[in-house]
Amino acid sequence: MAANGSAFYCRECVELLADYMDGTLSAQQKEQLEDHLSHCSPCVTFVRTYKATARLCRTHLAAAMPQELSNRLHNFLAHGLPPRKV
């Protein structure tokens, strides 16, 4: 929710989008986001673009990645990233 507690803004829409797509938002956050999307055409366009980009990456990039690159990327992600700060 917005800092003033009264409205849901585009910035918050963008911040919550990944969780919305994953289905991990609380019921209240989901309702606020969907309410915002019901009247904000720029955010609807952004959501559609986000969904299309994710779909294209899953279908086209994953299929075209050479096995050696896939192995190196997997190894880097498993061992090369610093620990997350909580």
Describe the fold and architecture.
With 86 residues, the chain is mainly α. It has four helices and no strands.
Overall geometry:
elongated
| Helix proportion range | over 70%
Averaged pLDDT = 82
Range of strand content? under 5%
Query: How many strands, which pairing sense, and closed or not: the largest β-sheet?
Result: none
Q: Which regions are unreliable across 5 or more consecutive residues at pLDDT < 50?
A: 1-6
**Domains, number:** 1
Rg for CA atoms:
17 Å
Structural class of the secondary structure composition?
mainly alpha
Distance between the termini: 22 Å
Number of helices: 4
List how many beta strands DSSP finds.
0
Provide the succession of SSEs: HHHH
Please name the defining characteristics of this protein:
86 residues; mainly alpha; 4 helices; disordered N terminus
Reconstruct the topology from this structure.
Blueprint: H1 10-22, H2 27-37, H3 41-64, H4 67-80
Question: What is this entry, summarized?
Answer:
It is built from 4 helices and no strands.
